[in-house]
Amino acid sequence: MTTTRRTALGRPSATTHAEIERVAFALFEERGFDATPLELIAAEVGVGRRTLFRYYPSKNDIPWGLFDRTVEDFAALLDAAPLDAPLWETVHHGVVAFNDFPRDADPPHEQRMRLILRTPALQAHSVLRYRQWREVIAAYVARRTGASPSDLQPRTVGHVSLALSLAAYDRWLDDPSASLPGLVDEAMQGLRAHLD
């Protein structure tokens, strides 16, 4: 596995979110998510457990990467759309763009999503992340329609968009040679009925 990097004073050198994720995903692949304690990840990265907590509040957060930043980018992407574009189209294209990841992502997006979507121990934690994602859509729809994010239509659009995206991911994980953005695009075609 990795070797501990140390500074001249004997302390571990600085690390990054990306490095932690690379090490953690290698361990998850080798040992399984449940059998990989946080202490082992910290040791392999060359930092203490408390230092690791400065990067990720829990082991369950590691597979999600920098999700808070990604969600902020998603909100900015929706907000940048022309206001004269149909609402369904803006949400549709925003969700497709959100799910278009570089093929050279490290760890690979397929590995990340396979772990998140097919590891029972991560399902409860995923509900929190899905909520954040749905709230971005609900807030955007509310701004565009003059509604409140807690009103039924914005919430419904958030839930429907998530369900359509997850269906596309299920299909993609069964056949990773398929285009994920293409599958999300195809699934999101059904959104128009909710916003026309």
From TrEMBL:
Residues 37-56 bind DNA. It comes from the Bacteria. Residues 14-74 form the HTH tetR-type domain. Keywords: DNA-binding, Transcription, Transcription regulation. The keyword Membrane does not apply. Pfam families: TetR_C_14, TetR_N. The keyword Phosphoprotein does not apply. PANTHER family: HTH-TYPE TRANSCRIPTIONAL REGULATOR RUTR (PTHR30055), MYCOFACTOCIN BIOSYNTHESIS TRANSCRIPTIONAL REGULATOR MFTR-RELATED (PTHR30055:SF238). This is Mycofactocin system transcriptional regulator. The gene is mftR.
